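Below sits the subject:

***
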Amino acid sequence: MEAIPFTPDMTVHPEVLPFFDAATNTISYIVRDPGSTACAVVDSVMDMDYAAGRITYESADAIIATIRERGWSLEWLIETHVHADHLSAAPYIQERLGGKLGIGEYITVVQQTFGKVFNEGTEFQRDGSQFDRLFKDGDIYTIGTMTAHVLHTPGHTPACTTHVIGDTAFVGDTLFMPDAGSARADFPGGDARTLYRSMRRILELPEETRLFMCHDYGPNGRNIQWETTVGAERTHNVHVRDGIGEDEFVQMREARDATLGMPRLIIPSLQVNMRGGHLPPKDEDGKVFLKVPVNGL
């Protein structure tokens, strides 16, 4: 991909509050502008007991309560990509606190792919209209006085984006902590070679850039972590540190992906997240159902 150059303002130091969801190993974030009360929420989680078919909102309520208690103003809800391991709570939060919902413009590719997988029919809009903003590579938006830059970083999915805000970047499912390496690239539309190039693009940011992960699984029994730096990743990342070439990474990533099972919540997550966090429409009796495509993924 041809990168759109920009220089991050390393003098801007956003306040970042993490919220770890143990059920899905997801980290959501509130990102606050230190110069105002404005904030954004990145990759929120809706709680789901899949076996019971029950949805609750404890994780989202904790984020909402924090924003209200501190008197902050929510301006953006950011989805770094269409998650396959948790359901987004963005509409639930938006209904209570406002803000605009944004995702990468290639959400339309994801919607086309999984609209077919789940046999959604013509009533399912595949134009990204479930979101308020579709970000292109190089786009900017503001959170209070801060300027956020959007990088298109596909490979895990076609619609993945990284959001660089001052000295901070939210990398979604691209990089993991240095001892965990990288995200998988075997979902429909994923590609290990593309992922490598996306990660190396992120690693071209200044070495002191703070990187915030979307997931951590505590490899080798260590405590859960979610923050590192570009410099630490370039030096220590087990999959993509400096000196590991593209072909070597692709061979490793594809071999590793072939051994991985599907995420536990992939089927409900995709159906909900491709709709911007909304559940499928109710049937004539007012009930909501999720589909299970047999041998479809």
